[in-house]
Amino acid sequence: MKISLIIPCYNEELSLNPLYEELKRVSKEMSSYEFEYIFIDDGSKDKTLSIIKDFALNDERVKYISFSKNFGKEAAMYAGFCNSTGDYSAVMDADMQDPPSLLPQMIEILQTGDYDSVATRRVSRKGEPPIRSFFANMFYRIFRRATNVSIVSGARDFRLMKREMVDAIVQMCEHNRFSKGIFGWIGFKTYWLPFKNVERVAGQSKWSFWKLFKYSLDGISAFSDSALKIPYFFGGLSACASIAPLSYLIYSSVKYGFWLGNTAIASSLLLFTLLIVSTFAFLSLGILGSYVSKTYNEVKNRPHYIVAQTNKKDVVKK
Ligand code: UDP
Ligand code: MG
Fold this sequence. Notes:
The protein has about 325 residues and is of the alpha/beta class. The protein is about 50% helix and about 15% strand. It contains 10 helices and 8 strands. An 8-stranded mixed beta sheet has the order 7-5-6-4-1-2-3-8, with helices on both faces. α5 packs parallel to α8 and α9 (about 230-255) runs antiparallel to α10. The longest helix is centred in the C-terminal third of the chain and has 38 residues, at about 265-300. Bound molecules: uridine-5'-diphosphate and magnesium ion (MG). Magnesium ion binds next to loops.
């Protein structure tokens, strides 16, 4: 049995050595399994690639795929799945926030034959800014409501999956990728393994608050078109907001003749209605525009990633 570990790396020169030491330790502990470590260098600007190449010199389990530029973690994970050959595969962050020491327990659960994957979820968010935790929890609630895909609060991308599941993920070749949603969408039986949050071993997070915010909106739109129905709601609200000024205008026209009532009130009501209606109209246009732009990107069908260097024979390019 072979286990493929997919490790997306973007400027991870400080984390790679402790991670590799830990991977070697855990692999030794699980000596009945063959291992493959697929490091995806996502266009790093530091020494990430040369460190990985050094690992590969003395260890044939180490494979690397280096991108021509930074394509993002989603593209890196996809490249890993497309190139993994193991009976089981897992994505693992380079910063050891996905503890390799959980692997023996994960494989043990899979070996019972009751589950197709073992996924990890953080039960604490210690060390994370409270505002980030608040928005993360809110996102999970909105995502579950807007889509019919089940994702668990605190779910990590770190999960050990059977070959059948990995093949299903590879089949999902959309460009607006949101892996947590994809894992939920493809189905299969998943065991949730809780663990306490671990802080990054070295270096800094690559995700700013706004990058995460945008990623979460993209995640929702990748799995739900509910937002496209919001304009109906705006339409209803605009209609309601128009009733009061309209009634006043009719009343004053009947009583005093058209425009002869209180023109100051009439014109401010008109302005108010105009502002509300145009705000809703532009918001609706924005929602429509974001779906059109996503469709545009899918239709162009550009490659997910471009490989600049690799030590893998027959590397799969998507
Ligand atoms: N990562 C990547 N490409 C990117 C950003 C991040 O491959 O554009 C990798 C990064 O090297 C790490 C993992 O994705 O292995 C998670 O990133 P990070 O730790 O910065 O995210 P956080 O844990 O803070 O959410
Ligand atoms: Mg991290």
